[in-house]
Structure to design on (163 residues):
C-alpha cells in the first residue's frame, strides 16, 4: 500500500480588525438584525434532491446569513475569565457553490469565521481574515473573484453593525 502524499505551502492572510465605539451588546444586536440566521429550508430541499427549489430560495434570500453563532466567552469561564465574545460562521450556500464548483477545497473557508468581542475599553471589536486573501491560494480567477465580492459584503455588514 502506498503512503499518502502530503504537500504544504505557506499563504499570506490579511487580517482585519474593526473597533466600534459602541458596546458589545449593541453591536451584537445590530449584526444579528442585519445578518439573519440561515434559512435551513434550502438545505432541506437539497437533501431531498430538489436543487431547483433550493436555488430559487437562496437567490431570493439575503447576501449573507449566520450559519452558526458560538458563545466563545462562555468557554473562557473554564479559565476563570468572564468575557463577552461570540464566534460567527457567516456566508451563503449559493456563494460557496460559486467557488467550490471550481475548487472543492475552497469549502475549507465557507462559511467565513468572524469573532466579535468586548475589548478592555468596553468597545465591541470584530476580527476576521479577509476572504480574498485565503481564497486566492487556489489560483483560480473565479474563486478569487467571489472572494473579493465577499470582502466587500462582509466588511459592509460588519461596518454597518459597528457604526
Amino acid at each position: 500500500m502506498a503512503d499518502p502524499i502530503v504537500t504544504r505551502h505557506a499563504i499570506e492572510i490579511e487580517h482585519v480588525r474593526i473597533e466600534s465605539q459602541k458596546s458589545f451588546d449593541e453591536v451584537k444586536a445590530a449584526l444579528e438584525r442585519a445578518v439573519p440566521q440561515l434559512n435551513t429550508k434550502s438545505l432541506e430541499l437539497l437533501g431531498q434532491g430538489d436543487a431547483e427549489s433550493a436555488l430559487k430560495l437562496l437567490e431570493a434570500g439575503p447576501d449573507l446569513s449566520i450559519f452558526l453563532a458560538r458563545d466563545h466567552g462562555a468557554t473562557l469561564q473554564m479559565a476563570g475569565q468572564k468575557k463577552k465574545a461570540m464566534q460567527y460562521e457567516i456566508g451563503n450556500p449559493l456563494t460557496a457553490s460559486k467557488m467550490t464548483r471550481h475548487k472543492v477545497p475552497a469549502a475549507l473557508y465557507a462559511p467565513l469565521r468572524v469573532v466579535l468581542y468586548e475589548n478592555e475599553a468596553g468597545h465591541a471589536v470584530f476580527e476576521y481574515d479577509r476572504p480574498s486573501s485565503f481564497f486566492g491560494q487556489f489560483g483560480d480567477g473565479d474563486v478569487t473573484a467571489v472572494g473579493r465580492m465577499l470582502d466587500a459584503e462582509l466588511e459592509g455588514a460588519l461596518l454597518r453593525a459597528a457604526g
